[in-house]
Specification:
- The complex is a heterotrimer of chains A (about 400), B (about 300) and C (about 450).
- By secondary structure, chain A is mostly helical.
- Chain A contains 18 helices and two strands.
- Chain A has a domain of about 240 residues.
- In chain A, strands 1-2 form a two-stranded antiparallel ribbon.
- Chain B is mainly α and about 300 residues long.
- Classes of the chains: A mainly alpha (about 400), B mainly alpha (about 300), C alpha/beta (about 450).
- The interface between A and C is large, with 70 and 61 residues.
């Protein structure tokens, strides 16, 4: 026991020391140290086999705390460009979790989750333009509610549709989304979209943690990255429990054998529509966060191309699994930098035709190759390698 | 009589017919593939686009229109066969979302590759007939020589497909392979070859469609030329029933005419909303299409 | 005993942690440069522009043409001893897909520019995209200069003192075209087709402001055009024909101009077209009709311009050709006989304006003093009217002249009169004699 305590203490000191180096003010050092301590404590608790075995909810909480703590410390230490990429990626992770749940648990596929993101994105923008000082949490809850409501409307026909028909219907929704927004042009701002009234949304207490004169851009980027990371953590926690819940298990039965599911008394339409609503709500939360990160929303962002991107990310990361969604989110966050790097190191003209199409060629090819050779994506491949390990 | 042909209602019907046959061809191509391989080909429009590029961009632009059209069809047929043999074959018997994802990825690859080779700049295709509408008593009839050529070409393609399926032994084998692969195989039908042939046929139909679309529209040929047309063609196929070629053709033409009326009497901006509404309602009423005979799923 | 040890270790750890938290100082933060983006040898500026994607056709040339100006200036000693470094970020007009390879997130790219840092953004393109970064740039004290769009949003000095437009506003343009229509097509029925955003809305307002009242006005959605193709316009044009409109005013982007002209041609409908400068560039519009068995339907259309590209005799044309030929990196295929299209002239225009402003600001300047120079000086650019900002007017050029499309690739000036007005309601359209046709001496080397 004592050895373990000492080990934890050493780890704590090491973590805090690593965190504190180069952090500009005492206040910020204190906040980061507390987060690091929380992370180390969570790791310590997780080492107990009893916790892992007998209290799965506690274990999932601890894992979430560790992931969020590491990411939060990262956001405070990275530069504002990486932070912005990370915020967009964290919000995308939420969207991917939703689609992963839909597919992984009910076997359905949606090509309309980009448009559901748009529902959340516009809800946030419209509300913020009419109520300047609403608390952030309220605005985000509204986005989730709006996404769930639209998801329910579209999910009703989905209850009777199977694979390709549902994919086609959600595709039509994604294609029509711009026109739908224009019907409400006086609210949604037509093709120009909407801007949020206030560009600086970092709270004062955070600004005070930094030395006077720190560029508002840096503080704001840290704030947005932290906000999206915490939101992604909360979404992750709920999703992990949902996957493991009774409802999650019954959905998997629907996916694998719908006849058997009906025999044991599961209502197929209700199960399918619920999965669809949850996936839409998750997409809307991610879209709402995008509006906050971007300070603006334009309808063209939420077209069919975004839905295809979402599908690619979730499949490449590993569809139907939580790690797959996180991998997909990371890929999204850093794909632009990676493709820029490839362009720079292959001698392609950055404005040439080939360089300008690399994104589509790479993602499209990865999508086909993943489905053909590794249908479970990167997370599935890692899991298989892990299972085959010889040590 | 002149007044009848140039009336608003008649203009809408003729204009709608011209658009409708295009949707019908896209829908037909989707149905052919769906019936033989149970795959909804989301890359159908992109494959057709690529075939059109092969016909009109690889050959010098001064080449005869009909030669280019023929090359495009051949390219479409070859591309269809290659796609089936390489990508699609690995997807048979997999969960039904796998082909959806793979074909969306294929769509992305084809459009990006086309843009990498030929850029996204629009390419103006030669038009073999005048696109200026005929006039009766000084007022336009909503039909030009080119539009008539489109309608006739579409009908020819449909008749050819119908003849192949109904009156040839190849057609019989194609239908048998689609209907019951195991029994067909026992009876000596080379099922795998039939599946490839189905894709080649559908892809050839797609190539004709893409050439018609790209030479008709003023926007010309671009890597995304077929995106909008594909969406409407898919809606036609889904409304008509993915199992029913006749349903696809009827639904395509009817949708074309309906959209023209919506555009004229309501607003062009409403067309896509009406299309989405029609799709949702029809799928709720008849989830497997208006023209498909209802088959109970067997346990 | 165990307990004591635990407490000792725990206490030591906590003390150590607190100590580190309280004492370890931040690494020395390099003191920020006095003026962000400006060193003794260089001024760094940036922009977000559509180099690929839906709006790249034509518009991708604009910022490159400005860079041709900077390249030439740098080769001739720079400005007050400083080179101009111009960083372009491809935001695909904020729209993914359509061959977009950049990052369709204008906000993220703008944050990269701010963090670089840049002295200012210069010549970023697009109304929705630039609207979305106004507040961000203001909060970081980064000037947002010569935004490429005709929106009125750029003229709001009270709220955005660092924000400046460049081209004539959509309203100014339609007011001047409207006056021309009153003088030459009076009594004829007018129909209006415009884009469903501020472009169409401001244009219609300008027409109505000078007393042109279209009997029918239609706003189209860009999304509908992208999905439905040219056929999407058929009902609009057929309706104008049925209503007997002899004059049709277009506030359209080039692709939409093509769709409108083509549909009318198919219907045998030949109204007098009046097309705003945004969608009228003769070379761009003709591309869709090349090789078709009928003449370019844009010939005869009336439009508006504030740039000299079509005036062969203009003193600027030789210099523009020289700098475009000189910039092989941006214009590898430009030859001595290539046409200088409207997009190139447009970009060269504000490129020159920025160099002029930088010269006027002197060797030692700050962001504040630069902005002060901008609103107190008049600049000679290739535009036909002087560029003159004031403390209350940040719009940019205030006028231009009427042109007519003469052939597939050329336009002619109808009368060499430059009209000037403002976006404000009921402000009169006047004829100016202060033509800005001169070329600054520093450009002749």
């Amino acid at each position: 026991m004592a050895t373990r305590i000492s080990a934890i203490a050493v780890a704590l000191v090491a973590a805090v020391a690593a965190v504190a180096v180069g952090v500009p003010t005492a206040g910020l050092r204190l906040v980061l140290a507390l987060i690091a301590a929380l992370g180390v404590a969570a790791v310590a608790a997780l080492t107990s086999a009893r916790v892992r075995r007998e209290h799965p909810v506690v274990a999932r909480t601890l894992i979430t705390v560790i992931v969020v703590a590491v990411a939060l410390i990262g956001t405070a230490r990275l530069n504002s460009n990486v932070d912005t990429d990370l915020s967009l990626g964290a919000a995308m992770t939420i969207v991917l979790l939703g689609l992963s749940f839909l597919t992984g648990s009910s076997g359905q596929i949606s090509l309309g989750n980009g448009a559901f993101m748009g529902v959340g994105a516009f809800t946030v923008a419209i509300w913020a333009n009419h109520h300047h000082s609403s608390p952030l949490i309220l605005v985000l809850v509204l986005a989730v509610v709006a996404g769930a409501a639209v998801g329910f409307l579209l999910g009703l026909p989905a209850t009777r549709l199977r694979g390709p028909y549902l994919a086609g219907m959600t595709l039509a929704f994604a294609v029509a989304f711009g026109a739908i927004l224009n019907v409400f042009g006086s609210w949604t701002g037509g093709d120009s979209g909407l801007q949020l009234p206030n560009a600086e949304n970092a709270p004062h207490w955070l600004t005070h943690l930094y030395p006077a004169g720190t560029a508002s851009l840096s503080v704001n980027s840290v704030w947005l990255a932290s906000l999206t990371v915490v939101a992604a953590g909360v979404a992750l926690f709920f999703m992990a429990n949902l996957f493991a819940s009774r409802f999650g298990r019954s959905l998997r039965l629907v996916r694998d054998n719908d006849v058997a599911a009906e025999l044991v008394g599961i209502s197929l339409p209700r199960a399918r529509v619920t999965a669809f609503v949850i996936s839409a709500a998750y997409a809307a939360l991610g879209g709402g966060l995008w509006t906050i990160v971007n300070n603006a929303v334009t309808p063209s962002t939420y077209g069919f191309a975004l839905s295809v991107t979402i599908l690619s990310l979730v499949v490449i990361g590993g569809i139907g699994t939580i790690p797959g969604a996180i991998i997909g989110g990371l890929i999204y966050a850093f794909s632009n930098s990676a493709i820029g790097w490839i362009t720079a190191h292959t001698g392609l003209s950055p404005q040439g035709n080939v360089a300008s199409q690399l994104n589509g060629i790479i993602f499209g090819a990865l999508l086909v190759l993943t489905i053909v050779f590794a249908p479970l994506g990167i997370s599935g491949a890692i899991r298989r390698l892990w299972a085959r390990r010889s040590w | 009589m002149d007044a009848f042909w140039t009336s608003r209602v008649m203009s809408d019907i003729l204009g709608g017919l011209t658009n409708g046959v295009i949707y019908a061809l896209v829908a037909l191509s989707l149905v052919l593939i769906w019936r033989s391989t149970r795959i909804l080909n989301f890359a159908q429009g992109a494959m057709a686009m690529l075939a059109a590029y092969v016909g009109f961009a690889v050959l010098a632009p001064s080449t005869n229109y009909w030669v280019s059209m023929a090359v495009a069809i051949v390219a479409g047929v070859v591309l269809g066969g290659l796609t089936e043999r390489t990508v699609v074959r690995t997807l048979y018997g997999k969960p039904e979302i796998n082909p959806v994802v793979a074909m969306v990825g294929f769509l992305l690859v084809l459009e990006s590759v086309a843009a990498a080779i030929w850029s996204t700049t629009s390419r103006s295709l030669p038009t073999p007939f005048s696109i200026i509408d005929w006039q009766l008593a000084g007022r336009p009839v909503a039909m030009s020589p080119f539009a008539l050529y489109e309608v006739i070409t579409a009908i020819v393609v449909m008749v050819v497909v119908a003849v192949v399926f109904q009156f040839t032994s190849l057609g019989l084998q194609l239908r048998a392979a689609a209907l019951n692969p195991e029994v067909s195989r026992l009876l000596g039908v080379r099922v795998t070859r039939m599946l490839t042939l189905g894709w080649m046929l559908a892809s050839g139909v797609g190539a004709v469609t893409a050439v018609l679309v790209a030479s008709n529209y003023f926007t010309g040929l671009t890597p995304t030329t077929m995106d909008g047309v594909f969406a409407f063609g898919f809606i036609a196929a889904a409304v008509g029933g993915l199992d029913s070629p006749v349903g696809a053709l009827v639904a395509g033409v009817l949708l074309g005419v309906a959209f023209q009326f919506v555009g004229d009497y309501v607003n062009s901006n409403a067309i896509i909303l009406v299309a989405l509404g029609l799709l949702i309602v029809s799928l709720m009423v008849r989830p497997s299409g208006l023209f498909t005979r209802r088959t109970e799923r067997r346990v | 005993m165990v307990r004591t040890r635990r407490i000792t270790i725990g206490g030591a750890a906590v003390a150590l942690v607190l100590g580190m938290v309280m004492t370890s100082g931040g690494l020395a933060q390099g003191s920020p440069p006095k003026v962000p983006g400006v060193t003794a040898k260089q001024v760094t500026i940036g922009a977000t522009v559509p180099l690929t994607g839906i709006a790249a056709q034509g518009y991708s040339e604009v910022a490159k043409a400005a860079n041709a100006v900077f390249t030439w200036v740098n080769q001739h000693g720079g400005v007050n001893g400083r080179r101009i470094r111009y960083i372009l970020k491809d935001d695909c007009y904020g729209t993914p897909g359509f061959g977009c390879t950049g990052n369709p997130n204008t906000v993220a790219l703008t944050k990269q520019l701010i963090a670089l840092p840049v002295f200012a953004t210069v010549g970023s393109l697009g109304t929705p995209t630039q609207d979305s970064v106004r507040a961000l740039l203001k909060a970081n004290h980064v000037p947002q200069l010569f935004v490429n769009s005709g929106s009125k949003d750029w003229n709001n000095p009270k709220v955005y003192p660092g924000l400046f437009g460049w081209q004539t506003s959509y309203t100014v343009e339609s007011k001047i075209l409207g006056e021309y229509m009153l003088a030459h097509f009076s009594g004829q029925k007018v129909c209006f087709l415009g884009q469903h955003d501020d472009f169409g809305a401001d244009g219609l307002l300008g027409l109505q402001d000078v007393g042109v009242n279209p009997i029918d006005s239609v706003m189209y959605d860009v999304a509908g055009l992208v999905t439905g193709g040219a056929g999407y316009f058929t009902p609009f044009i057929a309706k104008f024909q049925a209503e007997g409109c002899k004059v049709v005013y277009l506030d359209t982007i080039p692709g939409a101009t093509d769709a409108a002209l083509g549909n009318a041609l198919a219907l045998g409908y030949h109204p007098q077209w009046v097309i705003s400068s945004v969608g009228a560039d003769a070379v761009t519009v003709d591309a869709a009709f090349a090789g078709k068995p009928f003449p370019d339907p844009e010939i005869g259309a009336i439009s508006f311009s504030y740039l000299p590209a079509s005036l062969d005799t203009n003193v600027w044309n030789g210099w523009m050709r020289e700098i475009l030929l000189n910039d092989k990196a941006d214009f590898p295929n430009f030859t001595a006989t290539s046409p200088i299209d409207g997009n190139m002239a447009y970009g060269i225009g504000w490129g020159v304006a920025f160099v002029e402003a930088l010269r006027a600001a002197g060797r030692n300047f700050t962001r504040a003093s630069f902005l002060h120079t901008l609103i107190t000086t008049s600049f000679q650019t290739p535009a036909l009217v002087p560029l003159r900002y004031t403390a209350t007017n940040h719009q940019g050029l205030m006028g231009g002249y009427i042109i007519q499309v003469r052939s597939a690739s050329s336009t002619g000036v109808l009368n060499k009169t430059v009209f000037v007005t403002t976006s404000a309601a009921k402000s009169p359209v006047t004829v100016t004699t202060k033509l800005s046709t001169g070329i600054p001496a520093w450009l002749i080397k």
